[in-house]
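Priority: medium. Attachment 1 of 2:
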């Protein structure tokens, strides 16, 4: 088992505190959190023979990648995982993330003889090659927020990959009951039927797909997030009505995002959008 209980506390704290408190707390625990996450990364790395076998396959070459909670992309076998070892070429990152989608049954079965068919829920095909992806949480992580003119949320963009972006829509925010992390539904740039940014942006049979919002971006958004009952800045205070049922029978988190005088309900992240057993353990 991984000693990662504090990682959950850290993540939940990121969405339960005001900006000042979060920054003060994060300075104390960031190094501890990184150690726990590094331990998980080390445990997920397989023997070198595994990677060599699939990289030299005569049928279809396969490579294996991981995405961390900050949206950084790594070859899975690389240790340690940090800014120095992450893949940084903007064109490559955009190419990689544009093609990312959920793995098919056939692609999944190709890993069955190694017993790791459930470790890689996403794939980014590249010609005859398959790039399997095991994210710590979501495969799409929004690591930058570009503001609109005059701070108008209508012009804000959430950035992922190298420089890919989608609109920020407050009504598409979702909060995980399990981890306390904040997410945004993957939506297309336009509503005129144009090709979506990724296949995940097109939705799937299981419903809408979501991208994780990096904790530092959550801090930037925190001033606009209030509890339904308290109407005070901050997340998930003790007086929040978590699991509140709306008139349309959908369930929200009890939190609101206030923008330009409009209050937008923050939904609870659907269970099917939560990370599976392949993700970073949260216990």
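Attachment 2 of 2:
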């Amino acid at each position: 088992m991984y000693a990662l209980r504090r990682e959950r506390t850290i993540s939940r704290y990121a969405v339960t505190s005001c900006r000042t408190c979060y920054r003060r707390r994060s300075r104390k625990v960031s190094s501890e959190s990184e150690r726990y996450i590094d331990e998980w990364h080390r445990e997920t790395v397989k023997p070198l023979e595994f990677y060599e076998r699939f990289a030299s396959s005569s049928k279809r070459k396969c490579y294996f990648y991981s995405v961390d909670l900050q949206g950084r992309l790594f070859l899975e076998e690389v240790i340690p995982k940090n800014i120095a070892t992450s893949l940084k070429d903007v064109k490559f990152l955009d190419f990689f993330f544009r093609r990312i989608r959920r793995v098919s049954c056939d692609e999944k079965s190709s890993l069955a003889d190694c017993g790791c068919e459930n470790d890689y829920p996403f794939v980014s095909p590249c010609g005859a090659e398959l790039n399997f992806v095991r994210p710590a949480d979501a495969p799409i992580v929004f690591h930058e927020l570009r503001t609109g003119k005059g701070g108008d949320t209508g012009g804000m963009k959430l950035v992922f990959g190298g420089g890919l972006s989608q609109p920020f829509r407050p009504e598409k925010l979702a909060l995980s009951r399990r981890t306390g992390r904040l997410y945004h539904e993957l939506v297309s740039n336009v509503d005129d039927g144009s090709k979506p940014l990724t296949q995940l942006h097109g939705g799937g049979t299981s419903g809408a797909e979501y991208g994780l919002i990096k904790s530092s971006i959550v801090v930037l958004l925190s001033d606009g997030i209030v509890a339904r009952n308290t109407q005070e800045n901050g997340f998930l205070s003790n007086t929040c009505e978590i699991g509140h049922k709306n008139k349309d029978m959908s369930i929200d988190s009890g939190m609101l995002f206030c923008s330009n005088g409009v209050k937008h309900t923050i939904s609870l992240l659907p269970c099917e959008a939560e990370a599976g057993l392949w993700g970073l353990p949260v216990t």
